[in-house]
């Protein structure tokens, strides 16, 4: 690829990240082998787009509505703009790891589109937790925490996809699952660059208060990654979504803690 080709190529990769992670209308990107794995570098930036638009909505609504109502509408927007992508991952992961006893059984449940009691409970707790925490964030910093939460939660996909292989056996002619499209395919440069970018933006927006969101996000990524490796010897798309949700909630918790 020539130097002149890089800006259009990177723009296409960014649009691919937005197209995969959100329901925001973007020009459709042509499918190519490895397009999603190359787009991973822009996952944190796509998180800024999601969090930034939610922050703007909050700024517009907050002067006119009670905090809980504003938080409810912001949460509704977040669910709609992401198409419940990560909520689906959290629910499936809860069903799989909660109801499965063997690796094979867990992977079978993860593939099942139906939601069970573990998944339903996890989904309710996630929505309720985010509603309460967003409404409890420091008023002057709600926008910053929304941006940081969605950026750092999508950053988790970088180290997870760098270190963990796909949990499902892959055929040379067929990729099994969305998680396999990025598992062990993230480059070292993408991991380092995405990490520096995400942590620097967090520090810019939150100052010294960024330390705890960053540390808890790193810890959750490490712990869930080790858990996935132990239980299913790798990672699936649902696992990426589950860690994403947990990290988002954890960042809100950090903000509410200092309020």
UniProtKB/TrEMBL annotation:
It is a multi-pass membrane protein. Its EC number is 2.7.8.26. The keyword Membrane applies. InterPro entries: CobS. One of its GO terms (cellular component) is plasma membrane. Pfam families: CobS. It is found in: Cell membrane. One of its GO terms (biological process) is cobalamin biosynthetic process. One of its GO terms (molecular function) is cobalamin 5'-phosphate synthase activity. Pathway: Cofactor biosynthesis; adenosylcobalamin biosynthesis; adenosylcobalamin from cob(II)yrinate a,c-diamide: step 7/7. The chain crosses the membrane at residues 42-62, 68-85, 115-137, 185-204, 210-228. Its cofactor is Mg(2+). The keyword Membrane applies. It catalyses: alpha-ribazole 5'-phosphate + adenosylcob(III)inamide-GDP = adenosylcob(III)alamin 5'-phosphate + GMP + H(+); alpha-ribazole + adenosylcob(III)inamide-GDP = adenosylcob(III)alamin + GMP + H(+). It is an enzyme of class 2 (transferase). Keywords: Cell membrane, Cobalamin biosynthesis, Magnesium, Membrane, Transferase, Transmembrane, Transmembrane helix. Belongs to the CobS family. Joins adenosylcobinamide-GDP and alpha-ribazole to generate adenosylcobalamin (Ado-cobalamin). Also synthesizes adenosylcobalamin 5'-phosphate from adenosylcobinamide-GDP and alpha-ribazole 5'-phosphate. This is Adenosylcobinamide-GDP ribazoletransferase.
């Amino acid at each position: 690829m020539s130097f002149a080709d890089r800006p259009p190529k990177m723009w296409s990769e960014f649009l691919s990240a937005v197209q995969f992670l959100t329901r925001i209308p973007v020009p459709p990107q042509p499918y190519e082998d490895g397009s999603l794995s190359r787009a991973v570098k822009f996952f944190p930036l796509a998180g800024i787009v999601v969090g930034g638009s939610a922050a703007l909505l909050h700024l517009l609504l907050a002067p006119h509505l009670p905090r809980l109502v504003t938080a409810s509408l912001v949460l509704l927007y977040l669910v709609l703009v992401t198409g419940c992508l990560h909520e689906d991952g959290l629910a499936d992961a809860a069903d799989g790891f909660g109801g499965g006893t063997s690796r094979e059984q867990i992977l079978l449940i993860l593939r099942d589109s139906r939601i069970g009691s573990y998944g339903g409970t996890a989904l309710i707790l996630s929505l309720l937790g985010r509603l309460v925490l967003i409404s409890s964030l420091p008023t002057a910093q709600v926008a910053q925490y929304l941006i940081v939460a969605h950026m750092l939660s999508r950053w988790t996909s970088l180290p997870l996809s760098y270190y963990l292989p796909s949990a499902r056996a892959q055929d040379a002619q067929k990729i099994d699952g969305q998680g396999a499209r990025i598992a062990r395919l993230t480059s070292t440069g993408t991991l380092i660059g995405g990490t520096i970018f995400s942590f620097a933006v967090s520090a810019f927006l939150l100052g010294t208060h960024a330390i705890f969101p960053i540390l808890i996000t790193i810890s959750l990524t490490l712990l869930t990654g080790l858990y996935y490796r132990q239980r299913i010897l790798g990672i699936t798309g649902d696992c990426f979504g589950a860690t994403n949700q947990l990290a988002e909630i954890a960042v809100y918790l950090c903000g509410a803690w200092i309020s």
